[in-house]
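Protocol step 4 of 6: structure prediction from sequence.
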Amino acid sequence: MWRTYLKGFKSYLVLERGFSQNTKDAYLRDCERLFSFLEEYDPSITPKTLTYKHLQVFLKKIQTPDKDEESRLLKISTQKRLISGIRAFYKYLLIENIVDFDPTELIELPRLDMRLPVVLTNEEIIKMINPIDKSTYRGAWTNLMLEILYGAGLRISELLNLKLDDIYPKQELIKVIGKGDKERWVPLNKIAFKQLNLFLENSRTQIKVKQGCEKFIFLNQRGGKLTRIAAYQAIKEIAEKAGIEKSIHPHTFRHSFATELMLAGADIMVVRELMGHASVRSTEIYTHLNTKHLKETLLLYHPLYNKH
């Protein structure tokens, strides 16, 4: 019964809402999760008879793992997206006059945990990069990966999807395809471009490229597209060798990129554009990292801090 509306819902998401393939697929999975729950909980419930109380039971169920299963609590961001998917489904049902009331309006979105991200100092990043054995193919792509992640603030998916024709050395720019297939231009420093050219000329040419992967810059030893897991493992290894005990992953370099800019006094709207954030609210978290600036301001202007 519920799934009979999915075909129209798919068209609604793509044609009317303009969502990307990834978002569409995620929303459809969210709906499937609800449908499966309802089939087990009470098969007689229809889109018209679904109530807020039913949704409360569903949300409690997905947030509480069964004792007999190896399941985890959904991350808050995932919970928010799941609720967004179900809300979108009911908005579609309302537009099509399939239902008269939207029970999802009463759901409160869980609040995100606003923990400050782990960041690396420039000195720590240099400490990681310097010992890399760039004479090996793995060392060469690891070094280049860090130069671009930290030098341009890319997401790891954006970096791994970089193609040869996305590079514009004369303009010192790279073209990045971000979330929702949104395109943006990001400057890249001369050192990173030099490392990129050396990699393409001396390292990548030694790899037998698999069919279909010819355009990608980052390839594994077998000539296939480099994976997120391989990137994470490489970063973890060099962090351990450098003696850095912070919890580090590819996104840490993106956080570090934004933090350095904000600490230097960069305009938050420019940082937002460089990061490819849809909303400035995503960029605002980096303003809370400038504790040094806050202390200096208090020392200069607050009477209690000026006492000798």
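Step 5 (inspection) to follow. The first strand starts at residue 167 and ends at 168.
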